UniProtKB/TrEMBL annotation:
Protein's organism: Herbiconiux ginsengi
Protein name as catalogued: Putative adenylate-forming enzyme
Highest rank taxon of the organism: Bacteria
Length: 449
């Protein structure tokens, strides 16, 4: 594809994602989505993994795959014959050198999924797919004011400060004379970034848009509130981590704006919040099947089919995430969209505590939203928290805890666990300063088997 054709792909998607994709009813939307899935199914035999299935197949006849399938059959799951070793070589070299330009097979970028549990997954993205992504994200994230600034050539370019742990190559694909990115590599010391932001403000080129993982937004908002950081972003976007209500509140207090949320995994762009604050699944590109985790059908693991992708086929891929929906949510959001709205992204599957029931027979699952609500009750008593389950122990550590906070927190957690009817002991652990380059995961179940 030529550069001009790629820009056309991006603009086309931008226009559709911003003003198009409007459906009068959910049923009409689903009919449109079924057509997109049918044409996706006609294309996927280009990947050897799906070749033998022929062209008659239905989506629900395809096997459900996960990260281990992806790694074991990587070479057959992409349509360009890229081998896993070559993709990993490029990606690991990029992470080591912090130069995220390298490509595999001429023009493909490689993303690595987080390696918090086991091996890391590798994902190939073509230039066309990057442009579709860029068009969608710009259309869905930029508010009216930011978009106006972007489109009016006599105004200064839109300045976006971007805090990332890994490659910015995906994001650089949207850079232009109207959009300037300042990348802040989170493996570098945080104070250096704060100084760089203040330096930009002093030169009159402070960021209009701030994009960062939730924990970094929280740290920046704290600095803004205590007067040690002078940026005034008009748009704040949370990526890559669970956005806690406390962080959204702090951002609002610091800069007077609501935090937009992007649910982006290496596997794809899975959700974006709308102007009305609802976090919509990105069902215009991804078909999401729900594997329910509870009898009430409020928590599920998503099984995703990304029908925009043609290079690495993501079909019925089970993600290691726990998503929550409100069964009473209306079919149509206030913003006019009929795509599904998430009540929250609760975190990874191993953020669900699994403890034996007091009856000694059952295993009780305690979902992260319940734990977060319990922790919020005493949040005036500490600056941050982590919970780690090992065996029958629920280990709590608190940062900068007030003298009585550990006892208050332990008592609330014991109440929670007894309400759920499970056996566990709550253990206090000293706070360990987290690695700023690591993704923040407040709740983790460590399997000891
Ligand atoms: Zn909405």
């Amino acid at each position: 594809m030529t550069d001009r054709a790629l820009v056309a792909v991006m603009l086309g998607r931008f226009v559709r994602a911003r003003w198009g994709f409007r459906f009068r009813t959910r049923a009409r939307f689903e009919a449109w989505q079924r057509r997109r899935i049918r044409s996706f199914l006609r294309r996927i035999p280009a990947a050897p993994f799906y070749r033998s299935d022929g062209s008659r197949m239905r989506l629900d006849q395809l096997p459900i795959v996960d990260k281990s399938t992806l790694l074991e059959r990587f070479d057959e799951l992409n349509t360009r014959g890229v081998r896993l070793v070559d993709a990993l070589d490029v990606a690991l070299e990029a992470e080591r050198s912090r130069d995220f330009a390298p490509l595999v097979d001429g023009d493909l970028t490689v993303g690595l999924s987080s390696g918090t549990s086991g091996r890391r997954g590798a994902f190939l993205v073509s230039p066309r797919e990057r442009m579709l992504w860029a068009g969608t994200i710009l259309a869905r994230v930029l508010d009216h004011r930011a978009l106006g600034q972007l489109l009016r050539p006599w105004e200064s370019p839109l300045r976006i400060a971007f805090f990332l742990r890994a490659g910015g190559n995906l994001y650089e694909s949207v850079a232009s004379s109207r959009i300037r990115f300042a990348f802040h590599d989170l493996t570098q010391p945080f104070d250096g970034h704060v100084a760089a932001l203040d330096g930009a403000v002093a030169r009159g080129v402070g960021p209009d848009v701030l994009v960062a993982p939730a924990s970094v937004l929280d740290a920046l908002a704290r600095r803004a509130l205590d007067g040690s950081l002078g940026i005034r972003p008009g748009l704040v976007v949370s990526v890559a981590e669970v956005l806690e209500p406390e962080t959204a509140g702090r951002v609002k207090a610091a800069w007077g704006v609501s935090t937009r949320q992007v649910y982006q995994a290496t596997e794809g762009l899975l959700g974006v919040s709308c102007a009305d604050g609802a976090l919509h699944l990105n069902e215009e590109s991804v078909f999401v099947e729900r594997e329910w985790l509870d009898a009430e059908h409020t928590h599920f693991a998503p099984v995703v089919t990304d029908f925009d992708r043609r290079t690495q086929i993501i079909a019925r891929y089970r993600l290691d995430d726990v998503l929550r929906v409100d069964p009473a949510a209306p079919e149509r959001c206030a913003c006019g969209r009929v795509t599904a709205v998430l009540a929250a992204i609760d975190g990874r599957a191993d953020a669900v505590l699994r403890l034996p029931g007091t009856d000694g027979l059952t295993v009780v699952e305690v979902f992260p939203d319940a734990v977060r609500r319990a922790m919020a009750l005493n949040s005036d008593g500490y600056a941050d928290w982590r919970i780690r389950q090992t065996g029958l122990d629920v280990r709590v550590s608190l940062a900068d805890a007030a003298p009585d906070a550990p006892a208050r927190v332990a008592s609330v957690l014991r109440d929670l666990l007894s309400t759920y009817g499970c056996m566990a002991s709550v253990v206090e652990e000293p706070w360990a300063t987290p690695d700023p380059a690591a993704k923040v995961r407040r709740i983790v179940r460590e399997d000891v088997s």
